[in-house]
Design brief:
The chain is mainly alpha-helical and about 200 residues long. It has helices at about 5-15, 30-40, 55-65, 80-90, 100-115, 130, 135-145, 150-155, 160-175, 180-190; strands at about 40-45, 70-75, 95. The protein contains ten helices and three strands, in the order ααβαβαβαααααα. About 25% of the residues are buried.
Amino acid sequence: MDQDARFRASVVSLVQGAGYEAISAGTGEEALFLARTESPHLAILDVELPGISGYEVCRRLREDVQAIGIVFVSGTRTDSLDRAAGLLIGADDYLAKPFAPDELLARIRTLLARNGAAHAPARPAPVALEAALTAREHEVLTLLAVGLSQGRIAELLVISPKTVAAHIDHILSKLGVHSRAEAVAVAYRDGHVSV
């Protein structure tokens, strides 16, 4: 399997793991065909595709399927000029590879919510953190929210990094989220953390 195929498979796996349906295309022409026949709410396009470029796919999608979110990704076309061109052609976002999976998922969720995508996973209702989390879990979440690493949290709370990891797992489970970034976002969104 070539590098592009592995990348596509990893993105599909990531997106499906977050509760979305996903299909992949190996060429620009295939991407256009699938966009026209499957009516997706979002397209994640590499700039450099076999056949027609991602820029051209984006341009055609904007002409044919205007109500679609488009995120460019590229490992080679990462200069500000490239990013600006992608946005001016019609993309909603542009990520340089490598990127953190949580960042891609956050951008996907934001675009789908902005576009009112019906099939997006439901946003969890606000959680009463005071009731759901233990006092220690709330401390760990607050320290995560200020950007501290697991090791630094362990030092400050005088517990082991393994114990911090266990608290983080409990926090994710109780909040119904899949990542630390989502947990921090929920805490800020619902007004439970204001640091």
